[in-house]
Each structure stands twice: as structure tokens, then as C-alpha cells.
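Why this split exists: single-chain examples teach little about how molecules sit against one another. For that reason, every record in the complexes split bundles all components of an assembly together and asks for one structure covering all of them. Below is a record exactly as it appears in the raw files.
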Amino acid sequence: MTTIQDPPAAAAVPAVATAVAAGTATPNRQGGDPGPVGRRTWWGAAFAAPHSIGLVVFTAFPIIASLVVSFMNWPTLGARSFAGIENYARLFADPVFRTVTLNTALFVVLYVPLNLVVSLGLAAWLTPRIAGRHVFRVLFFIPTITPIVANVVVWRMLYQPGGAIDATLQSTVGVHAPNFLADEHWAMLAIVAMSVWQGFGYNMLIFSAALDAVPENQIEASQLDGANAWQTFWAIKFPLISPSVFFATMMTLITSFQVFVQPFVLTKGGPGTATETLVQYIYNTGFQNQQLGLASAGAWVLFVIILGITAVQFLGQKRWVHYE
Amino acid sequence: MSEAVRGGLATTSNRSVNPRAVARTKTAPRPGRVRHAIGYALLCLVALLFVSPLVYMVATSLKPADQVFTTPPTLWGRSLEWSNYVQAFTYLPFARFILNGVFVAAVGTAINVAVAVLSGYAFSRLRWRGRNTVFMLFLVTLMIPQDVLVIPMYVMMQGFGWVDTFQALIIPWAFTALGAFLIRQFFLTVPQELDDAARVDGAGPVRTFFSVMMPLARPTMAVLAVFSFISYWNSFLWPLVVVNDVEAHGTIPLGLQQFFGQQGSEWNLVMAASVISMLPTVILLVLLQKHLVKGIVTSGLGGR
């Protein structure tokens, strides 16, 4: 539920975000609104109550509580006290926190564009004319819905000295592969490569479906005009699927800032702190060092970063996203 | 930007008299087919490269321990060691992890779908004061990353005395607003005449819901259920945080990580355990691929 791959969290959010972006809680499709016939009753509130109460108790309350905790000394066990902004001051003075923030940013900068290019490229490649296209789709989708821990463990073995990559290089080219996970220059790249492999299937599916919805006559028209496949893609298809691209970008950005399992299982954040990410820092601070106040402050910094990025995305979308 | 796009189009159409384009359409058939074949072969190669880690995983899970690392790498060892799977099950209580995982995922999914179908109905087909506001608030909760909730949730679990229990694994994440959204999207496509007919027959909102609406929503509920189940099944960070006694309450990913920590050098066993953990979701995916794709796409953007 907390990993980059979570299908449900990722699944419907694009449409959710459409609703938010368009500012319409009720996009009137067919029949949705009971109209003037149905009278307002309390039944609606009653039906919505169990879910609402659950969300208040398990989402609204904790998020507010975490803000409060972030301003306190809050050991896992023992006396709690008010700390003011001390936790935040400590965070920003901590060189490790700076490192993990930069590591996370580096991951995001490498991972997000790669994921989008691969998923968009393959979605464009897998046109309906490709035989056995749904087989390819299912194949590319497998790692996104299988337990990420299992996928990461497999890659751990591939990256291992003597593992598949190293052995292949030795027997074909005759050189040793770098020790990917123990080398600080390679470790992050190795994590990014694994993450792209694991995660692009979801975006590919979204793009693939969006491309299928592009009207055939528009494509034909552009082909009659002599546009080649590349030109048709960028002039016709891309603008039409830009809302999908926008939300995929946003979701991928949001989830990539929360990267945790891949470095945690591949490298434990190492070598040194070369691949430690923000979420691992929060985890270590909260559950290894038992400083829940400090960890909450770290979580809020992450939250604010994510909110900031989301806001920038929404502001920037006008420049390239086309809604019909 | 749309002007720019149209401008770009205009330029391409100006070039449409370009003899190259005409020549290509005339001589198209053969080079086109060859190119298509090459393209297809390339695609198969990409797919093969893509699945190679998974193939390697399955192959390694069946190798004898001393043949896991060989140069050059081989796909099969001397013999197929099916006993690796038995060992994976006996070294750590993997059967227990599977049972735990199924239990947690099934109960969580049931709650998730039940509350979502109720609220999805309320948000789409009933009129009540504050409906749109509450729905917007539901959407807002989706913006909160779950990693940010982990710390306060843990503190809450301490307060409830729920640390290291099944309810701690299940309840906190059973109320995601996503389900309400999915179900609501579905109900918005159901014609109003059905409600009217039910009302004429004298059915109130409760009877309309149980005898008309909920049966209609079954396919959407199924899609939501599958996604919810997979999400619970794969979840790692929260179990890592809230479970102390892995043998009692551990789910598959947590068990796998433990197993990996202890058996890190026995790669064939680790790979067997990984295969076991992946099987249920792969089976779900293969069986239900059409519905899953539809679920993603209709709840996503494909329908526009």
C-alpha cells in the first residue's frame, strides 16, 4: 500500500485528478443527478457515513496528528514534550537528511523521464495491428502487480557479482561487470533501472488505452497529408492523449518521491548513505531510532515537497495539456 | 500550444506533395511488410529481454544449490530440484505467511468494497446536503501519501493497543476513497429510469440499493476487490512497521524479506519463495486481464 507500484492507489487517481482539475465534483454524465424529483433526505449521509467515519479516523485524524507530533519530542516509549520547531531545525542541520533528500531527487530525476519514455514508446509501438498485443501488455504489466519485494530480490541476484549480468559479460566480452550495488556510482543507477523495469507497465497501459481512443480518421487524415509515423504521433496523437500523459506524470512523480522498497532491499541505502531515500530516513528515524517526532517532521517535509510538485504540475499543465 | 500544433500540421500538409511520400505509398507493400516483420522481431526481443529476470527467477528456483552461479550463465542445472519449493516452505513458515496474507487481504477487501459501494451510491444517486463537499474531501484524502501517514498511524495503533495484530494490518487502509470514486463513476452511468421505476414500486433508498443498484454494480465491485486484494497482498512498509512477531502476523512480502535476510546465500530457495509470492497475482492478472485493464482504463482516462 505504500510502494511505488500500488495498483489501487495509482489506478483511479488519474480520473480523480481530472475531476479535481476540472473543478467538478459531479461531472454530469447520464442520469447521475436525481434532479428535482428526488428530495433531499438523510439517507445519503447515512450511506456515506461508514466510509466517511473510516476516513476521518484513519486518514484525516492521523495527518493532523502527525503535524502535531512533528512539533514534539515523541519517543516511542517514555515522556513526551513540546519541542517547537526543534525537530525541523535538527532535520535541516542534519547532513544525512540533506543527502537523502538529494538522493531522492536524483532518483526522481532519473526515474520519471525514463519511465515515461519507455511506457509511452511501448504504448505507441503496441498498436492494435500488433499480433498478440494483449500478451505483450500482460507481460509488461506483471512486475507492477506482483509483490515488489519479490521483484527486487530477483534483481538483487542479477546485480550480484557472479550473477546473471556479471556472468554474461564475463563469458561474452570477457570483462567483469561492476559490482553494481556496492559501488556508489552505480548503485543509484541500478536502483533506477530496476524500478523502471518494475514500474512502467502501469503507465504503458494508461497510454495504450488513451492511444486506442484517438479517432482513426484524424490519424488517416494526417497520413494522407504525408506525415510519417513520428510526425503523426507528435502532431495528432500526443496532444490528444496529453491529459493521460499529464496525470501519469503527476502520479509517477508523487510515487517516485516515496521510493523505499527498492533501495531498502537492494542496498539498505548503501553503500554508506549513497542510496538512502527520504522514506527510509523517516523509517530509520521513527522505528530504528524511535524518534517519532523527528520522523513526523521528516514526513511533513516529504509531504510538502509532494504538494509543491503537484501544484507546480497543475499550474504548468495549461502550457501542454489539451482538454477537449 | 494548440495553435502551434495546428501550425505544425499545416507545415506537414504543405509538404504532402513531396514525391517521397507519394513514391512510398506506391511501392509500399513489400518493404512495408519486411519492415513490419523486422519491427515485430525487435518487439519480441524487447519483450524477451524484459521477461528474462522472471525467467531467470523461475530457472534458478529449480537449480541445485551449487549450480546457481555459473559462468557462462545457464538456464537449467543438472537436474530440476522441485524440492527447493518444499525447503522454502519448511525453512520459514511460508504456508503461515500465505494464510496471513490471504486473511488480511480478504477481510480488508471486504470492508473496502462494502463501505465503498455504500458511499459510491450515496455520492451518485442520492441527494443530500453537503454531498459535493464531502465528495471533494474524499478526493483530497487521495492526495495524502500513505508514507506520510505511517508514523501517526503507528502512534494510533499504540494507543489502540493494536501493534502487532491483524486488525492493525487490515483496518487502517480499508477506507481508501478510491473505491467510492470507482463505484460512483459506475453508478453515474446507470439510467435514472431505474430509480424512478423502483420508487413507483414503493421502494425506498435502502431497498432500491439492495435489490436494484448493488446487483448492477457487481462487476465494478469485483474490479475494486481485485485491486484492493493485490494492494494488501503486496504491501510491505506498513507490515514492516507494525508487525513484530513475523511468524505470527507476517504477510508474504515481509516473510520474503526475512527469508532473504536469513537465506541470502541460498539463492535457489530465495527464488522459489519469490515465485510463490508472485503466483497468486500473476494468476489473477492472466485470468482477469480484460476486467483489470477495463478497470484501470475506465477509472483512469481511457474513456474520454
